[in-house]
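Dear support,

I submitted the protein below through the web form. The confirmation email said the job was done, but the results page showed an empty box. After a refresh the structure appeared. I'm attaching both so you can tell me whether what I see now is the final result or a partial one.
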Amino acid sequence: MAAVQKVGIVGAGAAGLTAAILLADAGIEVEILEKAAEPQTLGSGITLQGNALRILRQLGVWEQVEAKGYAFSTLGLRTPDPAGTVIAVLEDIRTGGDDLPATLGMYRPDLTAILRERALQAGARITFGKMVTGIEDDGDSVTVGTSDGGSSRYDLLIGADGLHSAVRNAIGIEVEPQPTGMGIWRAFVERPEDVVRTDLTYGGPCFIAGYCPTGPDSIYAYLVEKAQERKHEDGPRIMTELAAAYGGPWNQIRTNLNHSARINYTWFTTHLVEGPWNRGRAVIIGDAAHSCPPTVAQGAAMAFEDAAVLAEVLISADHVTETLWKEFTDRRLERATAVVKASVQLGQWMLDGVRDANVPGLMNSLSTMLKEPA
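What the results page shows now:
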């Protein structure tokens, strides 16, 4: 018998839905509390590395994801010149195994919809419009209060509620995301015919100019700059001005950066809970426990892995004990820490203008680690 019979999950994103699927498949009663009033249908693109695809295959949704997204296994490097000259096309390490692509890009709401439907099919319940206002842990169960005046009792609570986690705050973990000094413009636009992988351009007016195909007809393009105050309504103009220095596919991308394009601007942030992610019978995973700049595109993969490992230890144990939490911590903390530190380091090298940094060495050691299942 599993260590728990009824689990509450706060947050209907990648981490929460993954945990819900695996626990419900094992016959555990699962309820997801989501603060949004309804499923979100707008968003940008997401880059999924091979180790994320490995978990999606475990969930039984890989074929659906592959059909909706755009898979590739190379990485292009271009120069910041009018031609956007390609200087290298590199075979990427397939961190999910040789039978999966190295990378897949897709529209984030499509991914969430696939996972949400799979969770419902597994028997999980999703309740929208539920904002957590309080958590009480009596040692044997957790009672969650919500903004509508209701409360629910669970054997265990999983906080998968993102960067500004209400669960993290409620259980007394005083760690908050901090800016790293970089900001990113993202635009979801039509795919130029010659965009068949992620290409990165370092230099020019931005630290990085890049894009990722997300489907047969779409990409998300991004420009990374020094963090500053920006207005979203200025996005089309600012992105067009910054992108003027980049050629190749950027020539077509620029023409699509009009006021109908979906453009947003955010600062890179990072945080890491350096120790057990649980307090009693409440635990945080995914962006609630750790976050980092998307410089190695591992945010979603880490969320999937957290959820999969947590579900595994809960299903295989007979009781919720310190031994269970130690196993979870031992399997996740070091791996997540390595990803966070590498992501921040890559960004700091760019901020500091370091030209002789051993980027290939860092990326190779990280990918080698991630190729081993979590």
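Response: this is the final, complete result; the empty box was a page-load delay. The chain has a mean pLDDT of 96.
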